[in-house]
Amino acid sequence: MNNSVYVDGSYRHNNPDWHAVDSGWKADRIASILVKNSVEFESCIEVGCGAGQILARLALQFPGKSFSGYDISPDVADLWSSLPPGTVSYHCADFTGSTESADLLLLIDVFEHVEDYLGFLRKLASRACWFVFHIPLDMHISGLLRDRQLNARQRVGHLHYFSRATALATLEDTGYRIVDHQFTSVSQETIEGRRTLTKFANAIRRGVQAISPNMAAKLLGGYSLLVLARSHELPVPGLADT
To answer: Residue 239 has what DSSP assignment?
Structure first.
């Protein structure tokens, strides 16, 4: 991971709330895919938990479960003090350097920031029974024409860029078995504060999406991929081997 921007204040300068404005929406989507697939867990760890608000909301939705968050940035550690005490434990540390494991591991908008993302994912594949990933889909035709990947690189630190196909292939190649996946679009699902241009683009996205969500993601962007997975080493309950 290009750690320097996360510890020298650069990332927080560009993203003052550390994307906390979308945390409730992300937590609700995570909860939905877990419930949909009848995922049972007692312990949950989020790697790269940022401001910590996703875990704080999930702790309310799944009472009685154990939640922990890890992040390498001292800047986000300052934000944790404003969260409700006692519901989640937070650690300013690199999770890959720990020996902790859990039933459920969350990586929400994380591995696109990691220099050796393949090695990073392989290291984590044995650390939980279930995994939820949220992956920005920066590789789309509209973005390529305008070099929007450079904006993602400079503003939010993305070092790697994915489409739906390459995101799923990356997980499968690094030791994960896909159980469920779905497109998400924060700009369409959280309307408040969106610019007029974004609202216009969303109207076009919805038109193409009605024909094919995958086509809309490939052509226009503005989507991420929410993925539920298990390790290749573990069987998926209720699914026959293929």
So the answer is: -
Q: For residues 90 and 81, give the distance between their C-alpha atoms in angstroms, rounded to a whole number.
A: 10
Q: Give the H/E segment covering residue 53.
A: helix 53-61
List the domain boundaries for the chain: 4-139+146-186+223-231
Is 4-139+146-186+223-231 in CATH node 3.10.580.10?
no
- Model pLDDT for residues 94-103, shown as the tens digit of each residue: 999 999 999 9
Packing angle of the helix pair 213-220, 164-173 (nearest 10 deg): 100
3-state class (DSSP) for residue 166: helix
List of E strands, the chain: 43-47, 66-71, 89-92, 102-108, 128-136, 176-184, 224-231
Burial group, residue 124, by CB count within 10 angstroms (0-12, 13-18, 19+): buried
Q: List the structure tokens of 64.
A: 């009685």
User: pLDDT tens-digit profile of 51-63?
Assistant: 999 999 999 999 9
